[in-house]
UniProtKB/TrEMBL annotation:
Alphabetical list of NCBIfam families matching this protein: arch_pth2, PRK04322.1
Any one Gene Ontology cellular component term annotated for this protein: cytosol
Catalytic activity: an N-acyl-L-alpha-aminoacyl-tRNA + H2O = an N-acyl-L-amino acid + a tRNA + H(+)
CDD domains assigned: PTH2
Record PANTHER family: PEPTIDYL-TRNA HYDROLASE 2, PEPTIDYL-TRNA HYDROLASE 2, MITOCHONDRIAL
Lineage: Archaea, Methanobacteriati, Methanobacteriota, Methanomada group, Methanobacteria
Role according to the record: The natural substrate for this enzyme may be peptidyl-tRNAs which drop off the ribosome during protein synthesis.
Enzyme nomenclature, EC number: 3.1.1.29
Protein name per the record: Peptidyl-tRNA hydrolase
Source domain of life: Archaea
Organism: Methanobrevibacter millerae
GO molecular function, one term: peptidyl-tRNA hydrolase activity
Length: 112
């Protein structure tokens, strides 16, 4: 069981901004996950992985594939108060879910 955060690198966010956006994605996806999956994930050390994509189009394609597999997800849209424009899509939070299921979509992504 794990969660995966997919971060857009084309936005050139700072490290702190990326961390905050990943936190939003993690909590958002967690809230949409079934209690059974949450319990299993909590018993397996709360694994999280952060990967990267180079564009919004890549991020949205991953979201589409995740949604087709009925995996919980959360698309983070920034308020635009600091580094990036309002309504920028920054991160896709995925899961928690079984590693193998998430890896079908994210397994080829590079780590951030």
């Amino acid at each position: 069981m794990k969660q995966v955060m997919v971060v857009r690198t084309d936005l050139k966010m700072g490290k702190g901004k990326i961390a905050a956006q990943c936190c939003h994605g993690s909590i958002g996806a967690y809230k949409r996950t079934s209690p059974e999956k949450i319990k299993k994930w909590e018993n397996e050390a709360y694994a999280k992985v952060v990967c990267k994509v180079g564009s919004l189009d890549e991020l949205l394609e991953i979201k589409k594939q995740i949604a087709q597999r009925n995996i919980s997800y959360y698309l983070v849209v920034d308020a635009g108060r600091t580094q990036i424009p309002t309504s920028s899509v920054t991160v896709l939070g995925i899961g928690p879910d079984e590693d193998e299921i998430i890896d079908e979509v994210t397994g080829d992504l590079k780590l951030l």
